[in-house]
Design goal:
single chain, alpha/beta, Rossmann fold, 2 domains, 7-stranded parallel sheet, 5-stranded parallel sheet, elongated
Length: 314
């Protein structure tokens, strides 16, 4: 039996070596190798070439290399087999670190103090709110969003969550669906977006949504942190909302086009922080271990964990 590493970009060889150590009873192959397609039973993919998985008649499961799975649905010939995303403590913790770091940075005005340092300005400090005075709203309450919400709460932020379907978290107010989106936005000073990319969420971070954020808080204006998917956002709307005062500050780890083009005004806007889609770059060994454990589950007749719904798109 064979395990296929199907990467559309990047070097597959380190992954091949990882899986050879973790699945020694499997033939580990990559796209372009010479092997029998009939022997391939499992595949790990990240932006595989569309159609490239359709040639394996005995494929049992497909694993996304990360938490995001929208890349799978780029393939119109995606095999009709179970699919799963990676859920791993390392990946989850890294995302929460990113969210907490930037929420605190926005609240404590580190950008303003960095600018003052560059100008050698020592100014009397303005009053700053405590975390308990700042309302953070997390859009997307899956594994990553729920963990980030809990850790923001531990810091002291006033946290709420929104998702397509109702979720319940101890001590955190939750909203669900279109009917409750306006109420969620109206109580949010810092918006954290960790939604999956689907037909329903594409372009959801637009001017209408941003103008619905709270303007009665203890911060100069609402701020945005998007570490979900780039095509959730309309970047021209974000820039316009920064310039007209709707938004105070923006932190973006994902973009509509990646790498972010050199001519994008996001690079140089004075109130935008750009990071290169690395909010939750997980340890390859941790990812490989999680996928190898899933392979063993299937081989032992157990159900896959963290499966992807074709109907929902995540």
């Amino acid at each position: 039996m064979s395990f296929l590493v199907a990467l559309g970009s990047g070097d597959p060889d380190p992954w091949v070596e990882q899986f050879r150590a973790l699945l020694p009873d499997h033939q580990i192959v990559k796209l372009g190798d010479s092997y029998d397609p009939a022997g391939v039973e499992f595949a790990m993919t990240w932006y595989h070439p569309p159609g490239s998985l359709a040639v394996y008649p005995h494929l049992k499961a497909v694993f996304s290399m990360g938490a995001g799975v929208d890349h799978l649905f780029r393939d119109p010939n995606l095999p009709d087999v179970p699919m799963a995303r990676v859920v791993d403590p390392d990946l989850t913790n890294r995302m929460s670190e990113y969210v907490v770091l930037h929420a605190l940075s926005v609240m404590r005005q580190t950008r303003r103090y960095r600018d003052q340092q560059n100008q050698k300005l020592w100014l009397d400090d303005d009053w700053q709110p405590a975390a308990s005075d700042v309302r953070v709203g997390v859009m997307g309450m899956g594994v990553l969003g729920s963990d980030a919400a809990h850790k923001l709460q531990l810091i002291g932020f006033d946290v709420a969550g929104w998702s397509r379907s109702k979720k319940t978290l101890d001590g955190i107010e939750t909203f669900a669906g279109e009917a409750e989106l306006s109420a969620f936005l109206a109580r949010t000073d810092i918006l954290v977006v960790l939604l999956p990319l689907t037909d329903d969420t594409r372009g959801i971070i637009n001017a209408k949504l941003l103008k619905s954020l709270a303007h009665d808080g203890r911060v100069p204006a609402p701020s945005l942190i998007n570490a979900g998917r780039g095509n959730l956002q309309i970047e021209t709307d974000i820039l316009a909302c920064l310039d007209d005062g709707t938004l105070h500050e923006v932190v973006l780890d994902v973009f509509q086009i990646e790498p972010l083009p050199q001519n994008s005004p996001l690079w140089t806007h004075p109130r935008v922080t750009v990071t290169p889609h690395n909010a939750s770059v997980s340890d390859p060994m941790a990812v490989a271990r999680a996928i190898a454990a899933q392979v063993r589950r299937v081989e032992q007749g157990e159900a896959l964990l963290n499966t992807v719904s074709r109907a929902r798109g995540y």
